[in-house]
């Protein structure tokens, strides 16, 4: 069990990033015990519990103090356990990308996670369960207000920088391939994600005297990704952020120079989670070098090797067929940043396997 | 145990093997085992003996006994049979993440169905995939990898089977149900105000 100590003071803002190696979640304290959760991953010590929920419980936060839960996109590694969060925090508004505000998109959810579904698509299953639970869910796109809270004489406002409106049609065109037709058709087990990811919700949190940028998994695309965000006058006029949750696990596809020059203060604190799936590992050494070149204040939630921890007999049996075995969720780490409202400096803490980049 | 004789078993060019048939005093059946493509198959045959064909009498003979025995077929040789002395040690539900055809490898995510093991990622060579399932190997496809262990007279034999999940086509009723659910979900979607 990780000892996280005490919760933030009422006049403190906090951004806490959880990263198990496959998955990501963020908990944000916007002051006076008001919390916002972005995405979900599984806790290190309980393979069924969301990491954010375990953290808030450890701090003694009441379920009624969570104001919003954002599913920045539907990928498996970002929504594991998010339906549990929605059930646990009933007063929190549930926020999803506007690409789901469409008949084809909800048909996709129903086809792969509804009552007739093959039942294997985890990402859509989580979103489907939430929509089933709730009377309403909220969709956001560029410029939508996610959360607005009066706080200590100021207004803390979280707004969406993406997706751009044009991303909607791209997403629908992609999903349409996997939808049932009038005369039936054959379902697939799991729809491949849209590449590049232009549907994710990047979030800007204006604290009054400072700001936070959460990049989610938004990737670069001339008209639909980060270029569209930084080119938008409204987005580029947002208060520059001192804290950046690096987009897409630090990959070059989630990066562009104008993010650092237009949306961020010089030498911001950059926090990211790794992504490990077989040989596909992010960030690469080049990614790390590129981020270090932008700021010396980089942190990653996990950096340890992920060799399987099964008994040697089980590993041997599985290794007869499966090479390069790697356990996910074995390098769990937490990066926590806190600052008093109006304060000059962020305090950074690393828990478990989190470390400097 | 006395080995009576050996019956050559020819199935196809890639699946030829022999197996001794063992009889012992009082046996009413014999067991045939063969390995084919890493799979063990065990089949029990009843042994019908007349009064004169006692095990001792049979053992005394040097020629092949006149016992109605048919060689196992190719299908039987390939099919894995979890007999009484075989144990499933783990069932992994896998999902294909990526297929690297030029390398003959698929990247997979594995979840154990027995016990509470954490999920794992890894690489599986496509040669482990049953020929009938090759067309199913695409990103997102689900498969089941079953690992067996069999004990036999103190020796342990390992076996495994990897089969892909096949999904039936949607029926008209299912399509209608999907449309209804989609409409209901859409009715729950609410927009958020825009920032100035």
* N-C termini distance of chain B: 89 Å
What's the overall geometry of chain B?
elongated
- Rg over CA atoms of chain B: 26 Å
Poorly predicted runs of 5 or more residues of chain A: none
- Oligomeric organization of the protein chains: heterodimer
Please state the structural category of chain B.
Answer: mainly beta
Specify the helix fraction band of chain B. Answer: 10-25%
Mean pLDDT of chain B comes to 68
Structural class of chain A: alpha/beta
What's the helix count of chain A? 11
Query: What ranges of chain B have pLDDT less than 50 throughout 5 or more consecutive residues?
Result: 1-81
**Beta-strand percent range of chain A:** 25-35%
Largest sheet report of chain A: 8 strands, mixed
Morphology of chain A:
globular
Identify the strand order in the major beta sheet of chain B: 7-6-5-8-9
Structure overview:
The complex is a heterodimer of chains A (357) and B (196). With 357 residues, chain A is an alpha/beta fold. In chain A, 25% of the residues lie in helices and 27% in strands. Chain A is globular. Chain B is mainly beta. Chain B has three helices and ten strands, in the order E-E-E-E-H-H-E-E-E-E-E-H-E. Chain B has helices at 55-60, 74-78, 172-187; strands at residues 2-9, 17-23, 29-36, 39-46, 86-100, 105-112, 120-125, 142-152, 155-164, 189-191. In chain B, the strands form three sheets. Chain B has a five-stranded antiparallel sheet with strand order 7-6-5-8-9, with no helix packed on it. The chains are: A alpha/beta (357), B mainly beta (196). At the A-B interface, helix 4, strand 6, helix 11 and strand 16 of A face strand 5, strand 6, strand 7, strand 8 and strand 9 of B. Strand 6 of chain A pairs parallel with strand 10 (189-191) of chain B, so a sheet runs across the interface.
């Amino acid at each position: 069990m990780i000892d996280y100590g005490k919760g933030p003071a009422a006049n403190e803002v906090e951004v806490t990033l959880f990263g198990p190696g496959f998955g990501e979640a963020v908990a944000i304290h916007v002051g006076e015990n008001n919390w916002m959760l972005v995405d979900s991953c599984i806790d290190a010590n309980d393979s069924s519990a969301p990491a954010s929920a375990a953290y808030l419980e450890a701090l003694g936060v009441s379920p009624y103090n969570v104001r919003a839960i954002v599913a920045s996109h539907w990928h498996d590694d970002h929504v594991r356990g998010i339906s549990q969060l929605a059930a646990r925090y009933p007063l929190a508004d549930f926020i999803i990308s506007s690409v789901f505000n469409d008949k084809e998109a909800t048909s996709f959810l129903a086809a792969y996670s509804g009552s007739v579904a093959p039942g294997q698509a985890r990402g859509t299953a989580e979103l489907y369960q939430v929509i089933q639970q709730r009377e309403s869910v909220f969709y956001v796109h560029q410029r939508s207000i996610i959360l607005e809270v009066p706080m200590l004489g100021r207004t803390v406002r979280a707004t969406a920088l993406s997706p751009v409106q044009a991303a909607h049609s791209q997403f629908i065109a992609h999903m349409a391939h996997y939808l049932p037709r009038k005369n039936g058709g054959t379902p697939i087990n799991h729809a491949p994600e849209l590449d590049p990811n232009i549907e994710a919700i990047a979030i800007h949190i204006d604290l009054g005297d400072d700001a936070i940028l959460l990049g989610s998994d938004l990737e670069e695309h001339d008209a639909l990704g980060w270029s569209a965000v930084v080119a938008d006058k409204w987005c580029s006029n947002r208060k520059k952020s001192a804290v950046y949750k690096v987009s897409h696990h630090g990959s070059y596809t989630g990066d562009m120079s104008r993010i650092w020059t237009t949306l961020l203060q010089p030498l911001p604190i950059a926090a990211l989670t790794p992504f490990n799936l077989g040989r596909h590992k992010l960030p690469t050494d080049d990614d790390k070098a590129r981020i270090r070149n932008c700021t010396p204040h980089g942190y990653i939630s996990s950096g340890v090797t992920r060799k399987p921890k099964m008994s040697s007999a089980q590993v041997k049996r599985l290794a007869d067929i499966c090479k390069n075995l790697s356990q996910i969720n074995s390098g769990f780490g937490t990066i926590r940043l806190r600052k008093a409202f109006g304060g000059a400096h962020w305090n950074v803490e690393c828990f478990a396997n989190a470390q400097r980049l | 145990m006395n080995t009576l004789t050996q019956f050559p078993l020819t199935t196809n060019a890639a699946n030829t093997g022999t197996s001794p048939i063992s009889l012992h005093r009082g046996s009413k059946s014999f067991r045939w085992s063969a390995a084919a493509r890493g799979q063990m198959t065990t089949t029990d045959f009843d042994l019908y003996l007349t009064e004169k064909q006692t095990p001792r009498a049979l053992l005394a003979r040097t020629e092949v006994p006149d016992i109605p025995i048919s060689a196992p077929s190719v299908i039987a040789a390939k099919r894995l049979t979890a007999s009484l002395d075989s144990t499933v040690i783990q069932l992994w539900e896998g999902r294909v993440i990526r297929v690297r055809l030029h390398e003959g490898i698929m990247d997979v995510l594995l979840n154990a169905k027995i016990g509470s093991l954490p999920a794992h990622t890894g690489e599986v060579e496509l040669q482990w995939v049953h020929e009938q399932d090759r067309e199913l190997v695409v990103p997102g496809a689900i498969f089941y990898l079953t690992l067996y262990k069999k004990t036999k007279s103190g020796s342990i034999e390992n076996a495994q089977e990897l089969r892909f999940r096949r999904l039936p086509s949607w029926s008209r009723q299912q399509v209608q149900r999907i449309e209804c659910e989609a409409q209901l979900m859409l009715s729950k979607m609410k927009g958020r105000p825009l920032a100035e």
